[in-house]
Amino acid sequence: MLKVEDWAEIRRLHRAEGVPIREIARRLGVARNTVRAALASDRPPKYEREPRGSVVDPYEPRIRALLTEWPRMPGPVIAERISWPYSMPPLRRRLAVIRPEYVGVDPVDRTVYEPGEIAHCDLWFPDTAIPVAAGQSRTKLPVLVITLGFSRFMTAVMIPSRQAGDILSGMWRLISQLRRVPKTLVWDRESAIGGTGRVSAPAAAFAGTLATRIRLAPRRDPEFKGMVERTNGFLETSFMPGRLFTSPADFNTQLDDWLAGANARTVRSVQARPVDLLATDYLSMIPLPPVQPPTGLTNRVRLGRDYYIRVDTVDYSVDPRSIGRLVDVNASLDTVTVSCDGQIVAHHDRSWARHGLVTDPVHKDTAQRLRQAFTEERHRRQVSVRHHSDGHTVALRALPDYDALFGVDFTNPTTKASHQ
């Protein structure tokens, strides 16, 4: 086959210098017909191998018969049905070519987002053990991830649970860091946000305070929020490997440091750095509201005799002087606060353990004093002492004790009337 450089030299000698075909053939040591072919061709010679048959060719009719009835039949199943004797790569390559003839082609348009228009939200569950309390570790703690559509700027924070209050607390923390609010927050059918197909009441109240809207993705359509799905994969492959964590706070600290560098890299799809595009995103977002939106785990309960309230499987002590009264519980990502009639009666650091017990020593001491005072008062009221004529002491029990002994119930109107 004629080399490209010989082809170029033949054309130069003949057209630029006017060298005859016979002389060119002599100089280059090629046949005159080769010179004539080179002069007749406007393109350089290209080696093309004649196509050879594939080991798949004899099986293709049977493959097509299966795809006609079951277009999405997996490759391993097809290999089993046709008794495929070779390795899988040749069969996969042929399936990639002929399967679209039966299942059709589903093209995907490239979506272009305007500045400040949208942010994709999702939960990511890293499969690593993180110490949360003495002797306890938890895996697959949820990490809330938000990716801005225009700038591709990424933010994330680990939260204690998938409950609505914790998710909304995480969203408020990340949005507060941005100092502006995206016009639309895209979520999948996360149970606490829109598990029924409609935005939940807590999420709607949160969005209303921020003057934004929450848009739910269609069922089983991860491509609808593909940006944050890719962010989750990026975190899994680039942030997690080789890292150890001592607590959820340590996880968030390392994650913040890593995100600072990740947002400074050039993103291929936008050919820019997210940290540089964030300013444009910022100018088109909504200002933060003047008041904080409703977030956290909240509850109102009547404090029982054991003076503990439960938040996400963990029991927290409360000032026992509030026993029997209604108390308001508010748990953020970091703290648990309990108030009664506007006065704070408990304040604890949030525990991420399972079935834990958090006790304030002051509450325990107060309970001990109240218990002792109650016991002394009960003894004073139920037992009085007088002296017999011979000098020894005689204990007199309270009259209700005798009523109970003889079965007399003065709360019954009939009994009360008969004794009158």
Can you offer a commentary on this structure?
Strands 5-4-1-7-8 form a 5-stranded mixed sheet, sandwiched between helices. Strands 10-13-14-15 form a 4-stranded antiparallel sheet. It has 16 helices and 18 strands. With 420 residues, the protein is an alpha+beta fold. It has helices at 4-15, 21-28, 32-40, 60-69, 75-81, 88-98, 100-103, 164-178, 191-194, 201-210, 226-239, 248-262, 274-284, 361-382, 399-405, 413-419, and strands at residues 119-124, 130-133, 136-138, 143-148, 154-158, 180-181, 184-187, 213-216, 286-287, 297-302, 308-311, 314-317, 326-331, 335-340, 343-349, 357-358, 383-387, 393-397. The protein has 4 domains: 4-40; 57-103; 119-287, Nucleotidyltransferase, domain 5 (2-Layer Sandwich); 297-366, no CATH class.
Produce a short descriptive summary.
With 420 residues, the chain is α+β, with helices and mostly antiparallel strands. Helix content is 40%, strand content 19%. A hairpin with a 2-residue loop joins strand 11 and strand 12 (314-317).
So how many helices? 16
Number of domains: 4
Helix content: 25-40%
Structural class: alpha+beta
Layout of helices and strands:
Elements (H helix, E strand, L loop, with lengths): L3 H12 L5 H8 L3 H9 L19 H10 L5 H7 L6 H11 L1 H4 L15 E6 L5 E4 L2 E3 L4 E6 L5 E5 L5 H15 L1 E2 L2 E4 L3 H4 L6 H10 L2 E4 L9 H14 L8 H15 L11 H11 L1 E2 L9 E6 L5 E4 L2 E4 L8 E6 L3 E6 L2 E7 L7 E2 L2 H22 E5 L5 E5 L1 H7 L7 H7 L1
Parallel strand pairs: 1-7, 7-8, 12-16
Antiparallel strand pairs: 1-4, 2-3, 4-5, 6-9, 10-13, 11-12, 13-14, 14-15, 17-18
Helix pairs in contact: 2-3
